[in-house]
Design brief:
alpha/beta
């Protein structure tokens, strides 16, 4: 029988999981030391549950039972337990059986009988479903492909666990027992079920932290000031709708109230009657463990640790942080922090500010997550400046700044925001990504329903900030950025760009295309916007420059006309202030113009509008005013039909038929009468205007044209991605792929090569070619040529014309150094070329020459696939040589790649025109190229043991292609991946 050495304890089976109600549990293998825990657990199970498990009254476990249920070989007999607070709450076990249902004796037996027992108090929390995911993964690892389970018909809960799992199954009924048999190979349905459960559970765990019914601030100082007292003050000032308690063991005995706050005060959580949902911990790090114990024993659902002194403080602090996480999870709690800035929920039913932010942000539709407290302050401050007031586009729904991010992370917030009705845009500032593979998966799903905007710090030095104990990501940041784009993430570089993009996406509809109209009363500013559009890859119309003395009515008319134009997908409005005689600005000009633009945008087709302004602060504020009444009364009053209308000051440009350029004036659209200017300063005209109706459409305002256009371009690209994913590509099922045979080859090669744990080994050239051939990827043979006679024999075998190439590492693929000689026509030519090669570059022993048959000329490309331990499997493509090696012109896609993915990948590199007939050359066979990319993707996706594939060069000709060089690396598959059962990360 298969058996690991010395019945080794499989530590990699241990996992923390989030349950259906948002609490956590730890799943681990059962060991002989668990005998007392098992007995205690069984005593707390009801007689009915025992009956369902054993099909008969079974009041207690015998010593023999306890021994059988705690002693396993971790191969043919495996038991897992779910624990909370160190005690069992559920168990599952399997026993390998043969086709007759008897204990297995043949190593080839691949079926097992599985049984569960869940403590009654924890039934309905999804414990059995989580255990089924993990025991199925364990069974697959041990060569078991099928589970069988016998269940009493009355045990509907357990039957539902099996039937809802999504596996392919059979169901029979005999002798009063339901027998279920199901394959353990993951299916599309089983993966969807698992991902759905993961999302609901993790979202619920965040909801318990963000919307608690009661909060205890532990470490509240006895005198004003200090971290704890400040946190309490902010909770109260925010108008929190739940119960608040101040906790400090140093309060004098008999203290029951903290003044002047007037909140209940206790020395310990044990003195609080009723539940505490969230504990805000502000005590020194040395005292946090005992506080966590108090929280766990009181049933607290989650903790926010503001205390510092953890991983950011060095090695000792890092160990303290790991211990904090283990202790917190052992009680089934989630953790934000340590060293956290805090969390905020602006929902009217919650109103919680458990953070260091002194002011509660406005209620809105933007969700914020940061790891840095400083960036959190910058984001909150920036949003407040650009849209004060509840309901403004700059308002916040929820905010979390997680500090060292030991537990709750951006992934958890993505799970929460995915179906949160109060959040329309997700904004994240990340300094490290603990699980990039999961992040891209969650971001892709979330981005399909709402925008996800990300800025990442620490991009270039390759290390996470102090405090972030995360795996090292080996792939460069450019690759991470490419994978984010594939997942629909809007990647930006700065905090300012985070706000710019977030505000536009939170307030404007998505554009239907890249056609942009530019209008305004300043030719210079309009030209800047026009140029910025071209730089960002948009398709701007020639700017429509209004008269310098244009009125709000003129702006309203022009914007309405552009929005109604069929060839327009978005509008950029530019505006500068009018300056009257004596440098006096027109009263109310900003508010009236804002009302005019908002009214036109609200009345027109649903197209995004971005406004660029200079020195018009009240204008920007009025544009971002909260929806609802729309325009304040004083704003409406400012639009007096008989009073002076707003003039906007720059001399009008004259209309012209050409697009803007050197010596060409931008076209002017005259929407109203123009008043002559005196000394270059326009005089405000009188124009018939009326108060604009209240508009529910706030507009984003930007102080620079390039910022507005950059945000708009991000929205255009995101909208295009949304349209593409609405019709997803497919992973082709090629009939000639020999998946099973390739798997057998890989198993044989791994047994022969026996790579060390965690290391990969290259395959010999012949084995690499054979493996690739299993997936329909033929390679051109290379025959060694250690001497001229061997080269002649090789050429005779392959047929002339041939190529002579060196395989020395420093000369590989370097035709520019003379290491590759092509079009050798005959034996005489070959011998002469061989002599020249060895005379100029080195001895045959140094060069290791090979002979290859010439193939049709084309474009040399390179195809690679690699597995990063954190980011997952990545497919890369570029042109061979300088474009990819010197310029980094490489496109990346996540594996498995679809046909649409690889088509876009081929076209996304800067040198792509060389493949499509650049400057009159003949286009090459990109369809054949796409097929090879898809086949490589399938190989790596089907076999996790394949950790590297390198095809270089792949010569793509007008008809067909040739793979001239290939290498493959194998490694033992990782114990766990993102495709395995759900689990919380542990660093």
């Amino acid at each position: 029988m298969q058996q690991p050495p010395d019945h080794a304890y499989p530590r990699h089976w241990e996992a923390d999981v989030v349950l259906r109600d948002g609490g956590t549990a730890r799943i681990r293998p059962i060991t002989p030391d668990d005998a007392e825990r098992l007995v205690s657990f069984y005593e707390q199970v009801s007689d009915e549950s025992k009956y369902y498990r054993f099909f008969a009254p079974y009041p207690r476990l015998s010593d023999r039972d306890v021994h059988r249920f705690t002693h396993h070989d971790y191969v043919d007999r495996v038991g897992l337990a779910a624990t909370v607070g160190g005690e069992f709450i559920a168990t599952v076990r399997y026993d390998r059986i043969n086709d007759r249902g008897l204990p297995a004796t043949d190593p080839g037996d691949d079926q097992a009988e599985v049984a569960f027992l869940v403590q009654d108090a924890h039934q309905g929390r999804g414990v059995a479903s989580a255990l089924l995911e993990h025991i199925a993964a364990v069974a697959r690892e041990r060569g078991i492909r099928r589970f069988a389970a016998e269940v009493l018909p009355a045990n509907s809960k357990m039957i539902k666990v099996f039937t809802d799992a999504g596996y392919t199954q059979q169901r029979t009924f005999e002798d009063g027992v339901v027998r279920l048999e199901f394959d353990l190979e993951p299916t599309e349905q089983s993966m969807a079920v698992m991902r759905g459960r993961e999302q609901r559970a993790e979202a619920r765990s965040m909801q318990r932290l963000l919307a608690p019914g009661s909060v205890a601030v532990i470490g509240t100082g006895r005198t004003p000031g200090g971290v704890g007292r400040t946190a309490l003050r902010h909770v109260l000032d925010s108008g929190f709708t739940g119960r608040v308690h101040a906790v400090n063991h140093a309060f004098p005995e008999g203290t029951d109230r903290l003044d002047p706050e007037g909140v209940p005060a206790v020395r310990s959580l044990r003195e609080i009657d009723g539940p505490v949902d969230l504990a805000v911990i502000a005590v020194p790090a040395d005292h946090v463990p005992e506080v966590i114990d108090d929280c766990g024993e009181h049933g607290v659902q989650g903790v926010l640790v503001l205390s510092s002194g953890y991983a950011e403080a060095g090695t000792e602090g890092r160990e303290r942080q790991r211990a904090l996480l283990r202790r917190t999870r052992s009680y089934g709690m989630r953790l934000i922090g340590p060293n956290a800035f805090g969390l905020i929920n602006t929902a009217p039913g919650v109103r919680l500010n458990a953070s260091f932010a002194p002011v509660m942000p406005a209620t809105g539709r933007i969700g914020l997550f940061t790891q840095s407290g400083a960036i959190g302050i910058a984001l909150l401050s920036g949003l407040h400046e650009r849209g004060p007031g509840d309901g403004s586009p700059a308002g916040v729904s929820t905010f979390v700044s997680a500090g060292n991010r030991a537990d709750a992370s951006g992934n958890d917030l993505l799970q929460y925001w995915y179906d949160d009705p109060d959040t329309d845009v997700a904004i994240l500032y990340l300094e490290s990504i603990g699980n990039p593979r999961k992040f891209t998966r969650l971001a892709r799903r979330t981005a399909a329903v709402k925008p996800v905007v990300v800025a990442k710090g620490a991009r270039h030095h390759g290390t996470a900030p102090l405090g972030h104990t995360v795996p090292t990501v080996r792939i460069p940041d450019s690759t991470v950025a490419a994978l984010m784009r594939q997942a629909g993430v809007i990647r930006v570089d700065t905090v300012t760009e985070l706000l710019d993009a977030g505000l536009l996406l939170a307030s404007q509809p998505l554009p239907a295309g890249a056609r942009v109209a530019v209008l305004g009363n300043s030719e210079a500013l309009s030209l800047l916007a026009y140029d910025a559009c071209l730089t960002e890859g948009l398709r701007p119309r020639r700017p429509r420059v209004l008269p310098s003395a244009a009125t709000p009515h003129d702006f309203h008319t022009a914007l309405a006309e552009e929005l109604a134009r069929e060839g327009c997908d978005a509008v950029v409005v530019t505006a500068i202030p009018w300056v009257g005689e004596g440098d006096a600005t027109a009263p109310g000009e900003g508010e009236e113009l804002a009302a005019a633009l908002r009214s036109a945008a609200a009345a027109g087709p649903a197209k995004p509008v971005a406004v660029v302004h200079l020195a018009m602060d009240t204008f920007a504020t009025a544009l971002a005013a909260p929806a609802g009444p729309g325009v304040p009364d004083d704003v409406a009053a400012a639009a007096d039909p008989g009073g002076p209308a707003t003039g906007l000051g720059e001399p009008a440009a004259q209309a012209g038929p050409e697009a803007p350029g050197a010596g060409a004036a931008a076209p002017t659209a005259l929407a109203g009468p123009e008043t002559p200017a005196a000394d270059g300063v326009p005089v405000a005209p009188t124009s018939p205007t009326a108060p604009y109706p209240p508009a529910r459409t706030p507009l984003p305002a930007y102080p620079a044209a390039e910022r507005a256009v950059r945000a708009l371009a991000a929205a255009v690209r995101y909208a295009a991605w949304r349209r593409e994913v609405a019709e997803p590509g497919r992973v082709p099922a090629y009939d000639d792929i020999q998946e099973a045979a390739a798997g057998a080859d890989i198993a044989r090669l791994l047994d022969h090569l026996d790579p060390p744990a965690g290391r990969s080994v290259p395959l010999p050239a012949e084995d690499a070619a054979a493996l690739l051939a299993r997936y329909g990827i033929p390679t051109q043979p290379s025959l060694p040529a250690p001497g001229p006679d061997a080269a002649v024999r090789a050429a005779a075998r392959l047929g002339y014309p041939v190529a002579l190439k060196t395989t020395a590492p420093h000369l590989r693929h370097r035709s520019d150094l003379g290491g590759i000689r092509l079009d050798i026509a005959d034996e005489e030519d070959l011998r002469r070329t061989y002599g020249e090669l060895t005379a100029s570059l080195g001895t045959p022993e140094e060069l290791a020459p090979v002979v290859q048959k010439m193939v049709p000329r084309g474009v040399d490309t390179v195809i690679r696939a690699a597995i990063d331990p954190a980011a997952g499997a990545v497919l890369s493509f570029g042109l061979a040589g300088a474009p990819s090696q010197l310029l980094g012109d490489i496109a990346h896609r996540l594996i498995p790649a679809t046909d649409r993915d690889v088509d876009a990948q081929i076209r996304s590199i800067r040198a792509a025109p060389l493949l499509f007939g650049w400057r009159g050359s003949q286009p090459v066979d990109t369809a054949a190229l796409a097929e090879v990319l898809l086949r490589v993707s399938r190989l790596v996706d089907d076999h996790p043991e394949v950790v590297g594939v390198d095809l270089e060069p792949v010569v793509v000709a007008p008809h067909g292609l040739s793979v001239l060089g290939a290498s493959v690396r194998l490694a033992r598959p990782p114990a766990t991946t993102d495709l395995g059962p759900r689990r919380l990360p542990a660093y």
